[in-house]
């Protein structure tokens, strides 16, 4: 069926429940999962042009945002599992994009910062991400974007039990203690 022939009333919670037995919560997360997977696949293709994998992009983006961060902060703010993240950081260090150092106040803490090469690449890749994201959100009015963002923020807040981690994720800030 062409997009023009689709009828949004067929996608309502009531219609989906009658047809498939899916209520709002199940269908909402079904759509979030599909949107996320398709965005990841498209963004991965976009990042290839900059020589980046999706985990590398995500790690570089967080380190750029924070300036300097720990592995714990990086793990909380990037949606990459810890094992993949460790391997990714190792590769970014090998590629000369990230520097790993020890905290001068606590030798147990590893600090990550961008080298100039990493900064140059992430700046170019950010433009690619903005263009890709704009295409994904095309045709959605600003008020609906704001409503969707508020709903997703509340869902994230509901799913993260630790208030400090939730605040860090929602504000994209390094407010996360090493013990969190």
Could you explain how this protein is built, in words?
With 180 residues, this protein is mostly helical. The protein has a domain at 23-140: Orthogonal Bundle (Arc Repressor Mutant, subunit A). It is built from eight helices and three strands. The chain has helices spanning 13-20, 24-48, 54-66, 71-77, 82-94, 116-136, 142-159, 163-171; strands at 68-70, 98-102, 110-114. A hairpin with a 7-residue loop joins β2 (98-102) and β3. The termini are far apart.
What is the compact description of this entry?
With 180 residues, the chain is mostly helical.
Descriptive terms for the model:
mainly alpha, 3 strands, globular
What is the assigned CATH homologous superfamily of the domain at 23-140? Winged helix-like DNA-binding domain superfamily/Winged helix DNA-binding domain
Physical arrangement of strands within the biggest beta sheet: 1-3-2
Structural shape: globular
Low-pLDDT segments, ≥5 res: none
In what range is the share of β-strand residues?
A: 5-15%
CATH level-two architecture of the domain at 23-140: Orthogonal Bundle
Order of helices and strands: HHHEHHEEHHH
Mind sketching the topology for me?
Blueprint lengths: L12 H8 L3 H25 L5 H13 L1 E3 H7 L4 H13 L3 E5 L7 E5 L1 H21 L5 H18 L3 H9 L9
Antiparallel strand pairs: 1-3, 2-3
Helix pairs in contact: 2-6, 3-5, 3-6
């Amino acid at each position: 069926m062409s997009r023009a022939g689709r009828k949004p009333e067929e996608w309502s919670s009531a219609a989906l429940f009658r047809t498939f037995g899916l209520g709002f919560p199940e269908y909402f997360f079904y759509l979030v999962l599909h949107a996320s997977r398709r965005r990841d696949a498209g963004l991965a293709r976009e990042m290839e042009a900059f020589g980046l994998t999706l985990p590398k992009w995500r790690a570089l983006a967080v380190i750029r945002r924070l300036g300097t961060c720990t592995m714990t902060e990086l793990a909380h703010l990037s949606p990459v599992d810890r094992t993949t993240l460790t391997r990714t950081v190792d590769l970014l260090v090998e590629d000369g994009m990230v520097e790993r150092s020890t905290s001068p106040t606590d030798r147990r803490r590893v600090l990550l910062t961008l080298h100039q090469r990493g900064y140059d690449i992430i700046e170019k890749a950010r433009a690619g991400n903005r263009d890709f994201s704009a295409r994904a959100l095309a045709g959605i009015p600003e008020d609906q974007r704001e409503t969707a963002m508020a709903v997703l923020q509340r869902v994230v807040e509901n799913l993260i039990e630790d208030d400090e981690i939730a605040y860090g994720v929602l504000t994209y800030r390094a407010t996360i203690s090493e013990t969190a």
